[in-house]
Amino acid sequence: MPTMPRLIRRLPCVLLALGLAPAAASGLPPSATATLLPATLAMASGGNALDAVVDVRRPHADGLMVMAVTPGGSGDRIGLRVGDRILAVNDRPLTGTLEPSKVMNEALATRRDLELRVSRDGRELTLSGTAAADTAAAVAPGCGYVTNRGTLPHVSDRLHPVEILDIDGRGRPVDANRHRLEAGLHVVIVGERIEDIRFDPLQQAQRSRMRSREGARAGKALVVDVRPGVRYRLGARFLDRNLSSRAISENAYWEPLVWQEVEDACD
Q: What DSSP element (H or E) covers 45?
């Protein structure tokens, strides 16, 4: 039976590293420095080093954004939070390199203990602890699907379409009615496709500037725990109550979610 709107947990058990590429469509208004590299899913050797999704799609002077953290994982245990910006890992700075993915993976591969320097709410913090041993969870055999298709509920539910920009760091998938995935956790990057009519002219202009500035970084990570024989319909929830200029500028006016799960046999 279908299950109706619920926010799927965005919490993977791998370190996702989406790197730079000189030419790969972002699916959002063009930005010369924010294109996605198809087929780049980097994990620190030895396993789930941070148990977090970290956006390394381009170097950033303010640090690398943490997009998701696994509850109970290494990052969570040392206090890493979604929205933190990682400035350095194990004494390796991430703000002065053109290859943040490479530097991060090298830093995490060298030792089991973790020391992160992060920026949070304008303050610099040092987080330290020990990485968990790699214990791969058992995954049920089979497959399921993710899709951005389907008739959305009434607009009063504030649910709107999304575009799938990336799945598991492999780049933009070919446009299709549904995307087959093996059972287990998958990281899906989506961009909102809220109708322009939902914004007033000033808000539309602010949104356009934000999307042009952020490029591919305007997409958000959604981690879907795929069960065999289930299709997951993805969407965006419009957070339009008391919508402010700041919320639009900070891309904080929407959140990705799985709004419905339906049975769908998968071989």
A: none
Report pLDDT digits (tens) over 79-91: 999 889 999 999 9
Beta pairing class for 220-226 and 123-130: unpaired
| One-letter identity of residue 153 | P
- Strand 52-54 relative to strand 143-147: parallel, antiparallel, unpaired? unpaired
Domain limits of the chain?
48-130, 143-263
Structure tokens at 164: 């799938």
CATH homologous superfamily for the domain 48-130:
PDZ domain (2.30.42.10)
d(CA 235, CA 4) in angstroms, rounded, equals 12
Kindly report, residue by residue over 29-52, the tens digit of the pLDDT: 222 222 232 222 232 223 347 878
The residues with which 52 forms a beta bridge, in sequence order, are 69
Residue 155 DSSP class = G
